[in-house]
Amino acid sequence: MPSATINGHEIAWQQMGEGPDLVLVHGLATNRAFWYLNVASALRDRHRITLFDLPGHGYSAMPASGYTATAIGRGILELMDQAGVAQAALVGHSYGGACALEAALAAPSRFTQLALLDARISRLQPQMRLHDISDLTAFERETAARSAAAFGYDWESEDEVGFRFLEAAARLRVANSTAEARDEFTPFGEGRGALRAAQQWLRLIDTTGALTEFHTPGSEIAAIAALPLPVLLMYAQGSRCERSGRKLAELWPQARYIAVQNAGHFFPVSQPRVVIEALNAFLEAPRAAAA
User: Fold this and answer.
1) Closest Cα partner for 24 from 60, 2, 48?
2) From CA 143, how far away is CA 141, in angstroms rounded?
3) In terms of CATH, what superfamily is 3-126+217-290?
4) HEC-encoded secondary structure of 227-240
5) Element (H or E) spanning 207, and its range?
6) For labelling, which of 46, 81, 134, 189 has a CA lying 20 to 30 Å from the CA of 178?
7) Which one, of 169, 176, 175, lies nearest residue 143 by Cα?
8) pLDDT tens digits, one per residue of 139-179
């Protein structure tokens, strides 16, 4: 498994497939396997795909700092240099989308296209509250209730529920008190590695500056609006992140917006076919236009 030294710390990465370069960036509390089985495997016949584990995730090192979207965006560019990727299409999910946006803004000439999948952009959406959406999933309701009883979380006053749900799910997993309800994709809820992933996430937020840095806004709105790239926006209809997607669509007249129906935040895993078809059409569009 190759690794690259980014900002003095090891980042685990891999490449697969042949063709125009495509970089995929996963979100928080997952790793590059988020893409591997479904999306990357389906796209590898047409693209050389670069996957990597975010700092503090998977097999990458867990430094004390360097977790802002801006810092990770710079790291994407450094990784591309070391991986021999001169120019690529760039896809990011959730916090990985925020990082991908920062990379594209820092060096737009390095990228052909940008796709953001249910990415919350803190500059456009500074808070995320429990009832930003009309209906909680069964998993959210049960996780909130169990964690309030076990850890005293005050969900009604919490203004960063996305991070809080990940923390609550991890602490409940480690305490062997996980919710019985499941969503299409439940963080730390399935598989042999669920407990290990929960422990890694808690180590990250408890022993580093990551949680504070995750809150740090990235580029200013004017810079975001000036991005010169073709953009695909995919957001789950009714997602807490949907407000970011709608505001990005207003800033970017060139963007194509897809509202993913009957889906949750982790739809690249729960509805991979929808994502694969949308990405194939988006990534092939420039070549079809040039033909």
Assistant:
1) 48
2) 6
3) Alpha/Beta hydrolase fold, catalytic domain (3.40.50.1820)
4) CCCCEEEEEECCCC
5) helix 194-207
6) 134
7) 169
8) 899 999 999 999 999 999 999 999 999 999 999 999 987 76
